[in-house]
Amino acid sequence: MRRSQHSTKDARAGGSALGGVKALIFDFDGTIAAVPHDFDAMRRDVVRAAARCGVEGRRFKRLRIIEAIEYVAAILGPGGEGFRAQAAASTRRREIEAARKGRLIPGAMAALKRLRTAGFSIAVITRNCEEAVAITMRGRELPCDILLTRDHVKRVKPHPQHLRRALSRLNARPGQSIMVGDHPIDIEAGKALKMRTVGVLTGSAGRKQLEQAGADLIVPNVGALARMLLMGFCPQGRMRAR
Q1: Is 2 a domain residue?
Q2: pLDDT value at residue 16
Q3: Domain CATH number, residue 138
Q4: What is the DSSP letter of 12?
Q5: Does 130 lie in the same domain as 206?
Q6: 186 and 160 in one domain?
Q7: Range of the domain at 226
Q8: Would residue 12 count as lying in a domain?
Q9: What is the per-residue DSSP string for 112-139?
């Protein structure tokens, strides 16, 4: 695994043509690893930090945590750097605490290895910080061509920049690629670039949520997807979970 956006790799020559898929982009939490994040506590930290700066939490209650931090910092203008640093530090601290309790989802690593061996180019993208991912991995190598955490991009998924960067590094087009994740955010991100999307049922979202988000295919886990792809199946339209 290369742990930086600068450590890039073109898709391997003779990459997989199975189902027209060249590249696979995977979410991390809930897809490859199970990490018990306390998002409510993270949000409370941000709300308290914003309140100390005179910004009420109700102004950003519909925003996700990372986006809320940037929203408040923008409101504060030049004085927002102190808030951003404080809120980001508390978020990172809680992320790292959760990462220490995290575990890899059974079969996910083996599935990624099989897919790489078959010739698929693989990226892992996550809203997590890089340190948290490394802690969850506990010294094991993540079998991917590139890892893009929030430390490597200006805008994280579901903003399309995150996926565009991954596709660029893999030298793959959206139509050749699949976004795989456990949360509607992942499906939303893939759909924004007209990618095929696959939802896995190993994370926080259920089948109904993934269907409502528009997933083209829903599978029990990454291992099930790998078996389907290696048999030549490619998701083309909405399908029911298996």
Answers
A1: no
A2: 37
A3: 3.40.50.1000
A4: P
A5: yes
A6: yes
A7: 18-35+103-230
A8: no
A9: HHHHHHTT-EEEEE-SS-HHHHHHHHTT
Q: What are phi and psi of 217, to 5 degrees?
A: -150, 145
Residue 117 and residue 201 share a domain: yes
Residue 227, token pair as written in the block: 């078996």
Percent of the chain with pLDDT over 70: 88
- 240 and 210 in contact (C-beta within 8 Å)? no
Three-state secondary structure call for residue 53: coil
Tell whether pTM > 0.70.
yes
Contact 74, 80 (CB under 8 A): yes
Domain contains 60: yes
| Assigned token pair, 2 | 């290369």
**CA within 13 Å, CB half, 202:** 27
The fraction of the chain above a pLDDT of 90, given in percent, is 85
**Is there a contact between 190 and 179 (Cβ–Cβ < 8 Å)?**
yes
CA 32 to chain centre: 10
- Residue recorded with tokens 């190598």: 141
Answer yes or no: do 76 and 170 share one domain: no
Rounded Cα distance, 147 and 4, in Å = 7
What is the sign, positive or negative, of the torsion defined by CA atoms of 202, 208, 214, 218? positive
Domain count, the chain: 2
